[in-house]
């Protein structure tokens, strides 16, 4: 398919060449990771193949623009997945901005349901803020450990970190998320008490 590029070229060389403007190298990288990134979106976001392909295109467009900033070519795969996760987060935010449909049903108790919907939205917004504010390494460790079901040792290999470092990142992230959950519950109680006083 690429007569000028032998099959046994290293990933590091391809990334270096793509960064220098070699379109064949960029095409080879796209072909190498296209299916993996598409599978990631379909599994993580539960979207159809058409939406997943659009998100893959978005991911690679961002990757090509940011490629000059990648100084360690060996980390290309982890770096690409980080971009894909950010694209997934952005897509999730767009979906959450859409209005929640309320069933038109005379038996539906809107007065009782409204506080529950409000509390749920507040909790989701708060957790998203906590996730976005978390250091990138902690987010990556949590993602690979919980979402991809890797062991801490496998996460360490994936992110090229020490196993103890991964363990520390996950531990700190858990604490922060627990604090976020507790804060979110307190906010919900405050909202409910304000509604009762009003």
TrEMBL record:
Residues of the RNA polymerase sigma-70 region domain: 32-98
One Pfam family of this chain: Sigma70_r4_2
Occurrences of domain RNA polymerase sigma factor 70 region 4 type (ranges): 129-177
Biological process annotations from GO: DNA-templated transcription initiation
Record's keyword annotation contains DNA repair: no
N-terminal signal peptide: none
Keywords, in A-Z order: DNA-binding, Sigma factor, Transcription, Transcription regulation
Keyword Isomerase found: no
One MF annotation (Gene Ontology) recorded for this entry: DNA binding
Superkingdom of origin organism: Bacteria
UniProt similarity note: Belongs to the sigma-70 factor family. ECF subfamily.
This protein's name: RNA polymerase sigma factor
Organism this protein belongs to: Dictyobacter kobayashii
């Amino acid at each position: 398919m690429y007569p000028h590029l032998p099959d046994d070229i290293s990933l590091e060389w391809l990334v270096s060449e793509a960064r220098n403007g070699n379109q064949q190298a960029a095409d080879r990288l796209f072909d190498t990771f296209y299916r993996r990134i598409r599978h990631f979106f379909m599994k993580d976001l539960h979207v159809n193949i058409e939406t997943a392909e659009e998100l893959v295109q978005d991911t690679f467009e961002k990757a090509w623009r940011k490629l000059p900033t990648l100084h360690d070519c060996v980390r290309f795969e982890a770096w690409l997945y980080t971009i894909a996760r950010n694209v997934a987060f952005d897509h999730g935010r767009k979906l959450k901005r859409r209005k929640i449909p309320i069933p038109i049903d005379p038996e539906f108790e809107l007065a009782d349901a409204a506080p529950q919907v409000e509390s749920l939205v507040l909790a989701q917004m708060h957790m998203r803020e906590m996730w976005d504010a978390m250091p990138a390494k902690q987010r990556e460790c949590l993602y690979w450990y919980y979402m991809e079901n890797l062991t801490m040792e496998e996460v360490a290999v994936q992110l090229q970190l020490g196993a103890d470092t991964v363990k520390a990142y996950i531990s700190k992230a858990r604490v922060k998320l627990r604090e976020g959950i507790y804060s979110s519950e307190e906010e919900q109680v405050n909202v409910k008490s304000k509604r009762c006083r009003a």
